[in-house]
Amino acid sequence: MSKRFWIVSELYYPEQSATGYYMTGIAEGLAAELDVHVLCGQPSYSLRGIRAPVDEQRKGVRIHRCSGTTFDKNGLLKRLVNLLTISISIALRALISFRRGDRVLVVTNPPSLPFVISFACACRGAECTLLIHDVYPEALVATGILAPRSFLVRILHGWSKLLYKSVANIVVIGRDMADIVRTRLPSHSASLVRVIPNWADTEQIVPRPRAGNRYLREWGVEEKFVVQFSGNLGRSAAIETMVAAAELLRNDAGVHFVFIGSGVKREWLERTVSARTLVSVDILPPQPRDRLCELLNASDIAMLGLLSGMNGVSVPSRLYNILAAGKPVLVLAEPGSEVARVVLEESIGWIVDPADPRGLADAILEAKRSPDLLREMGLRARAAAEQKYRYADSLELFRSLLAAGGAGGERE
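^ that's the sequence the OP posted. Answer follows.
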């Protein structure tokens, strides 16, 4: 009986969110050589309401979609219900479908999913590899959902240690994440944590001239210095600092801010920009992925920002496509975070404290005054995308890890 490889994620094609995009890329890339199956949910984020086939074969991957509630994810209670229903639905399908010798890659989205899949793997004799996109419970603490010393946080810490010990391998997408995860493992097991970064889409996203960009023309900012934030306006994003910097620069008519995306902070963003009459700020909905190249090129510099306390907890996936577009970066992040390390290593932008709007405003003004420096940073950004963050390289790391198998069983 041939060996099967399972990718387990709530989000998968046709979802175009970051998790859906990357998990689809992994599965389809592995399917060229391996028998790949996917367990996922129905579209529930960017394509919420669309019904995809329950069972489908696409690009060599056999997709098995499970049902769950698809309430608006911006409400905590509704999001919790979604999390529980899809996790239970996928777990039941896993218990039926997994068999001895199968190898499984499960992502931490939703955070309950790895626990039920690890259990299903143990019951069915399959080998489980954990892919960490967000570290819990730290993500819940940093975003203010849970108090740092709460009883629930202590419980979740204990559960995460048990989870990490139960899987064959752990993959993280940032070096700062690896530092946190290794502290929860025995010293002799720390080497089983692998860093496989997300990749840049260097084929579809390329640097393009500013002149003639349709977005800049539509927004009426062709003559402005455009600072762009594009991505998830979620709880972890340092949107408040970005808006405060925009307010500090409100009298500089040459600087324009554009926020593109959705998330729980979008309503606050719209309300605040209106209340403070920040005419230099535009807020736009998420754009189609097939226009991402033009969108990322509709800026002079890109912004990325995580709240204080997010070091080692998450890595903004948009970073890599910003590199592909050859754009310099303004990063709100703590020293030592993966995104800050990349900016420093490649000399492609500015790093600002997540709670320092004055520092962000000053960095924007410095960037505006330095067109030659921005051009050099853009060239280095594109070179980094082509040389260090290629799809083929990330895929090969996953292929070698899953094909070889891990230690299996519980680690001491």
